[in-house]
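Exercise 7. Given the encoded structure of a 299-residue chain, write a plausible sequence.
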């Protein structure tokens, strides 16, 4: 299933979250860059008044720009929209997979109209939880189908066919995504951690230089300190270490659930009920990962 095969509220929440994330990280990065610029221009102490005045103008405009950027971040609430939109999208996605696989609450013993009504009611309940970001959702996304043709098509397949689609397009795809994200965050954390350490060491060396040569007009300490603090702030906002651990935990849990299901002798079981139970367990595991992600973003 691709994005357009999911309900309109998944598409709207997903697009709102991605745009808000892009805006938030751009503005946060710009804020740090402007603060770094303000510290860079004061590295050298000019004797000429005109040069000093020009530098002070640069410092003023850089800090003013950083202040405006911070206010925009506060007023626009991009971070809130980012994780609230993601929560809306993930909740709709989980519900969709339970619906198309005929899992709990959407069993294939229900009539088509009854199953559809249950799904629509649950979508309404989910949307009601996220009314605070309704103005950030695009009308062109909301106006799309709540129950798509692809959803109805998969639901009518045999249990074996539904199982094949779910394992390939949901479980194994999610496992690969978790694994790659865990490795990506581990590498990024290591990279930024060592950048901060190196900056602190260079700052320490330059402080020793100033002790030996106090008459020097060059002072890199404030600039390097700002760079180090900016690198640490970037580490905090990206949560590389926490994300790595969350994705690793989700990979382990989901892989164990999959292994347990694949070890069953399906010829000796009620295939439909066992598959429904497996879907519920897998979706709960993926929901826990997302709940942990949301908790980190709220810190």
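Solution.
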């Amino acid at each position: 299933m691709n994005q357009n095969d999911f309900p309109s509220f998944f598409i709207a929440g997903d697009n709102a979250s991605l745009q808000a994330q892009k805006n938030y990280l751009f503005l946060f990065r710009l804020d740090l860059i402007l603060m770094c610029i303000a510290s860079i221009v004061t590295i050298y102490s000019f004797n000429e008044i005109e040069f000093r005045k020009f530098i002070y103008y640069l410092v003023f405009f850089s800090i003013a720009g950083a202040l405006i950027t911070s206010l925009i971040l506060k007023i626009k609430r991009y971070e809130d929209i980012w994780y609230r939109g993601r929560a809306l999208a993930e909740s709709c996605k989980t519900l969709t997979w339970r619906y198309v696989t005929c899992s709990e609450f959407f069993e294939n013993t229900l009539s088509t109209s009854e199953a559809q009504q249950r799904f629509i009611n649950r979508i309404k309940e989910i949307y009601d939880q996220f009314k605070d970001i309704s103005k950030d959702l695009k009308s062109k996304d909301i106006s799309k189908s709540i129950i798509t043709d692809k959803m109805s098509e998969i639901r009518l397949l045999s249990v074996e066919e539904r199982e094949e689609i779910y394992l390939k397009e949901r479980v194994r795809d999610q496992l690969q995504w978790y694994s790659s994200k865990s490795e990506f965050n581990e590498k990024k954390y290591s990279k930024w951690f060592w950048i901060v350490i190196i900056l602190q060491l260079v700052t320490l060396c330059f402080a020793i230089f100033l002790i030996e040569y106090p008459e020097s007009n060059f002072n890199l300490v404030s600039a390097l300190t700002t760079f180090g603090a900016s690198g640490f702030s970037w580490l905090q906002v990206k949560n590389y270490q926490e994300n790595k651990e969350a994705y690793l935990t989700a990979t382990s849990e989901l892989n164990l659930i999959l292994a347990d299901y694949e070890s069953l002798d399906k010829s000796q079981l009620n295939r439909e009920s066992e598959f429904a139970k497996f879907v519920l367990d897998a979706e709960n595991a993926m929901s826990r990962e997302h709940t942990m992600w949301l908790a980190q973003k709220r810190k």
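Remark. The first helix runs from residue 8 to 40. Students should compare their own answers with the one above.
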